[in-house]
Amino acid sequence: GAVVSQHPSWVICKSGTSVKIECRSLDFQATTMFWYRQFPKQSLMLMATSNEGSKATYEQGVEKDKFLINHASLTLSTLTVTSAHPEDSSFYICSARVPSKNIQYFGAGTRLSVL
Amino acid sequence: RKEVEQDPGPFNVPEGATVAFNCTYSNSASQSFFWYRQDCRKEPKLLMSVYSSGNEDGRFTAQLNRASQYISLLIRDSKLSDSATYLCVAGGAQKLVFGQGTRLTINP
After folding, report:
1. CA of A96 to nearest chain B CA: how many angstroms apart?
2. What does each C-alpha distance from A82 to A21, A51, A85, A88 come to in angstroms?
3. Contact assignment for B43 to A34 by CB distance below 8 Å
4. What is the largest CA-CA distance in chain B?
5. To bridge B47 with a disulfide, which of A31, B30, B35, B54 should be the other Cys (CB 3.0-4.6 Å)?
6. Within a 10 A sphere around the Cβ of A96, how many other Cβ atoms?
7. Which of B3, A12, A11, A13 is nearest to A22 (CA)?
8. Which residue of A has its CA nearest to B90?
9. Which of B44, B39, B41, B36 lies closest to B90, judged by CA?
10. B22-55: b or e for each residue (b if 16 or more CB lie within 10 Å)?
11. What 3-state class would DSSP assign to A88?
12. Dihedral Cα B49, B50, B52, B54, nearest 10 deg
């Protein structure tokens, strides 16, 4: 399958700081990437769809000013959690859709812990 | 009602058993269907796509019934390494919706 790299894999930060997570498609160009969040023992919840060269599309209830998404190239999307709080602690996972297919391949995820 | 519903389990079965998972989806406009597996504290990995004609990959068989909006996964001759959470996925061109997952544990 296609390779998607996500970095960092683990972040511990203080409340009020901002955290940037990177998602890269390594062997294909992804015009569309997705950002999910997963709380323990729950399913993946789509936060936003990241479109290369345009604004991200956010799901209902997700604050776009808190979760900043940038998709500046065909292989890189970034998610910045601004002014993180303990309730933002979660497993954040990105995925990239393979062009011409509707299959998503996932990055390894970023475990965020906000103290 | 959740858009994609699965029995959360857990399913505990002995090694070698056959296991069946079911899933229903509510959006009749869904066009793409998949099963992913997710190991503890890891990202989901694509197990197989699901087609109306049914498809098989080794010990795994997936079926789709569009009329009843029902997806199934059958695992034959289960192995210890099959222990994971299995995610049912339905979606269209814009996004995929994941079920909450069914947790499976294969016991020696």
Report:
1. 11
2. 11, 20, 9, 10
3. no
4. 42
5. B35
6. 30
7. A11
8. A102
9. B36
10. ebbbeeeebebbbbbbbeeeebbebbbbbeeeee
11. helix
12. 100
**And the tokens for B11?**
């399913």
**Angle value at C-alpha A81, between A77 and A86, nearest 5 degrees:** 145
Yes or no, beta carbons of A93 and B45 under 8 Å apart: no
User: Under an 8 Å CB criterion, which residues of B touch A?
Assistant: 31-32, 34, 41-46, 49, 87, 91-101
| % chain A with pLDDT above 70 | 99
Select from A4, A44, A54 the residue whose CB has the most chain B CBs within 10 Å, as the one to mutate to test that interface. A44
pLDDT tens digits along B50-88: 988 889 999 999 999 999 999 999 999 999 999 999 999
pLDDT(A97) > 90: no
Q: Is A44 on the interface with B (CB under 8 A)?
A: yes
SS3 A14: coil
